[in-house]
Amino acid sequence: MIPKPKVQTPPELRRQADEMFSIIIRSQYAGVNGKEFCFVCGICANWHHLQCGHFLARGNYKARYSEINCKPICPDCNRKQKFGDKEVEEKFRDKLIQMYGEEEVEKLKKDYKIHKLYKSDYIEMIEKFKIRIGELQ
């Protein structure tokens, strides 16, 4: 008897998409030696030791997988931002404005709405993320 393939639930697919997107964000700017800088404080570390920091909280699914919203940051800055450290939030915002312009950052904030993702959305994203990760290696 052939076993049925396990059907993944939306939360399982979301976790898989989160992990893959995090790899893309943390590794895409790394040098040949694997080193990357924290977007907020500038500390240099191997990309494996950085985290995928979200300017706007990742509870919003529209911004959760936005490359404008997400940057590699050190665990210390990520923790501070999650607990509302205004200095870290301001540095994050200022650097995003330097990179993309104030209009783009304001647009990101304005478009910050609840946006439900479905199982098919996650499956499609995961396939795209697999291709991106392959290109980065």
Describe this structure in words.
The chain is mostly helical. Helix content is 53%, strand content 10%. It is built from 6 helices and 4 strands. β1 and β2 (44-46) form a beta hairpin. The longest helix is centred in the first third of the chain and has 18 residues, at 10-27.
How far apart are the first and last residues' alpha carbons, in Å? 38 Å
Number of helices in the DSSP assignment:
6
Query: What strand order characterises the main sheet?
Result: 1-2
Number of strands: 4
What is the strand and helix layout of this fold?
Elements: H1 10-27, E1 35-37, E2 44-46, E3 51-54, H2 61-64, E4 70-73, H3 75-82, H4 86-100, H5 102-110, H6 119-136
Antiparallel strand pairs: 1-2, 3-4
Helix pairs in contact: 1-6, 4-5
What characteristics describe this protein?
4 strands, single chain, 10% strand, mainly alpha, two-stranded antiparallel sheet, 137 residues
Short description:
By secondary structure, the protein is mainly alpha-helical. The protein has helices at 10-27, 61-64, 75-82, 86-100, 102-110, 119-136, and strands at 35-37, 44-46, 51-54, 70-73.
